[in-house]
Amino acid sequence: WGFYTPPAPLPEAADPGAEQAAPEAAPLAGEALWERTEALLRWRASAAASAARPLFVFDWDDTILPTGALTAEGHFAVQTLPVEHRESMERLLTLMLWSHRDELAACAAGAAKVLRQAQKVGEVVIVTNAVQGWVQNTSSRFLPTLVPELAGIPVISARSIFEPQGVADPARWKALCFQRIAACVGLGEHGLGHFVSIGDSWHERAATFEVATVGSVPRFAKSLKLLERPSIAQLGQQLEVCAAWIEHLATYPGFLDLSFQDNMDVGPLVLPGVTAASPSPAADASELEADEADESAPSGLDDAGESQDGNDVAMEQGSAE
């Protein structure tokens, strides 16, 4: 929970000859985990109470970490192999990671860039449907140069909060978590102005616009849906494009419902099976003055986000998205 810090080395045992190690404290889960997370979010919100800073909520798997591509190569399945085959498989996977070193470095650099941009103009939170500790473990293993950038960013496992409380639907984990986060950071005098979600899953999009309909905390909800199961190279490209969109997402005075296309353009989201743009909160934005959006839209893109130029990871260890 809370601020990410790299794992510290274990202290040496006071008595090397002791037969039993001291029992480890059970990790927080459920409402106890949320209470500690809430305290952190409220503290951060109080520090910026004089201004309504946009809130950026980033997903992790296939948003910052190319989980789908890594899963397809078997990086999360070593422990399921017979013991006698694990060492050789680990050597093979190490070689495969080496072959992806430039692409993974690009992902880490792109993620660092977009997170920095978001922190300049608003508050940043990472919310994952993976188990507690997944972000820390996978960033250290696959994106080590990103680890320093995660310091100071709250990392929240929606699953570890709500699954122990009997919520079985992963979509509800995100929805409930988004609502609680919005309530926490909307404590300032002006409340929460912009709630921005960036992720590959439909869960994020649905949860974002549900936040907009619950209570009166956010004024504008924005969703930028990334490609599902991108390649490592595609994910790095998406993160670079996301960085260019951050200021527009933070300042556009209306709802936005956007998505990446296969050609890496960003445009209005079209639901599967629908040939025309579907009704969404983004439609409200079209009623606003076009020049208000044009001033902050990335170059080459119109105010609606159209180009003018024409996962499952194992439930026991990873994401349920």
Layout of helices and strands:
Elements: H1 30-47, E1 55-58, H2 67-72, H3 83-99, H4 101-121, E2 123-128, H5 134-142, H6 147-150, E3 155-157, H7 158-162, H8 170-185, E4 192-199, H9 202-211, E5 218-225, H10 232-251, E6 256-260, E7 266-268, H11 282-285, H12 290-294
Parallel strand pairs: 1-2, 1-4, 2-3, 4-5, 5-6
Antiparallel strand pairs: 6-7
Describe the overall structure:
Helix 1 (30-47) packs parallel to helix 8 and helix 4 (101-121) runs parallel beside helix 10 (232-251). The protein has one domain (38-268): HAD superfamily/HAD-like (Rossmann fold), CATH 3.40.50.1000. Strand 6 and strand 7 (266-268) form a beta hairpin. Helix content is 42%, strand content 12%. The model is unreliable at 1-25, 274-296 and 299-317 (pLDDT under 50). With 321 residues, the protein is α/β, with parallel strands linked by helices. The two termini are 19 Å apart. It has helices spanning 30-47, 67-72, 83-99, 101-121, 134-142, 147-150, 158-162, 170-185, 202-211, 232-251, 282-285, 290-294; strands at 55-58, 123-128, 155-157, 192-199, 218-225, 256-260, 266-268. A seven-stranded mixed sheet has the order 3-2-1-4-5-6-7, sandwiched between helices. Residues 286-295 have a biased composition (Acidic residues). Residues 276-285 have a biased composition (Low complexity). Residues 276-321 are annotated as: Disordered.
